[in-house]
Write a structure and sequence with these properties.
By secondary structure, the chain is α/β, with parallel strands linked by helices. The protein folds into 2 domains: 187 residues, 3-Layer(aba) Sandwich (Rossmann fold), CATH 3.40.50; 90 residues, Pantoate--beta-alanine Ligase, Chain: A,domain 2, CATH 3.30.1300.10. A 7-stranded mixed beta sheet has the order 1-2-5-4-3-6-7, with helices on both faces. A 3-stranded antiparallel beta sheet has the order 8-9-10. α6 crosses α7 and α8 packs antiparallel against α9. It is globular. The protein binds pantoate.
Amino acid sequence: MESRPLSEGCPSTDNTVPVGLGPPTRKANAIDVIQHIKDMQRYADRVRSDDHTMAFVPTMGFLHEGHLSLCRIGRERGDVLAASIFVNPAQFGPTEDFDTYPRNLERDLSLLEKEGVDVVFTPTEANLYPEGYQTYVNLTQLPEHLCGLSRPVFFRGVATVVIKLFHIVKPHVAVFGEKDFQQLQVIRRMVADLDMDIEIEGGPIVRESDGLAMSSRNSYLGSEQRPAALSLYRALCAAKDRVGSGETDAAKIIQEATESIGSYPDTDIDYVTVCDPITLDDISRIDDPALMALAVKVGQTRLIDNMILAPPGK
Ligand code: PAF
């Protein structure tokens, strides 16, 4: 499995701050910003020894309202709210956009501070993947669907970094967006399979006023690509209406969405699927609420979106 090569970083020098000196951090206004693993673990240990609960929102930064909505959920769920910002090289394939992925740490920290986040973990690649790193987490079935087919290293990279972040931040509850529905299911499955004592909570998709699902990658889109980008949401809404009015044939629903999105010149469909929301296995008849999920390239920008299609009365 080929993933983007990890940098040959220096071994981490995390063991420099003695326990018990207060959060060993750089301060960005009122939030604590922690870069080193052991410092974050000691912070988490103090939270736990004070009998407080820790909620956690992992991110890759370049935050938008979707991330901030997850922070608001986290704020309700924990006494202490942690976030992380780390663009994880292990989840990018060699030809994907790791190098150009948008980044703006100062802006992110100021947004997180306004949301009342207490602590932000901002490791470097060398912190998380020091020289000689070779341990990865693989799920056997869920990644064989949807995005996993065209992004073969993505879920291995996500599962690996999330389990590492969980060991470092030690949350009681962690919040992930439902826009990355497959990622959410992968993490739920991993946490259950590995008996991890962490509650996983999903946060609803947040959309722009025109319906486009918020994503850090939306910043790549030109204004002329907006109609094509919006075709995903429109196709999902049309499918939802059709199933809500009694259509049960998944193939028909998929065909209609494919035709409608494909009618925009700048679109290249990766997949349009109707599947079981838990296993992500394809379904042919929609007798119960089903997940419709889409991945489409608009120009060079890969967009994903999804919606639950519920038959009448379900
Ligand atoms: O959804 C994301 O932003 C990332 O995949 C995550 C969960 C932070 C892991 O890098």
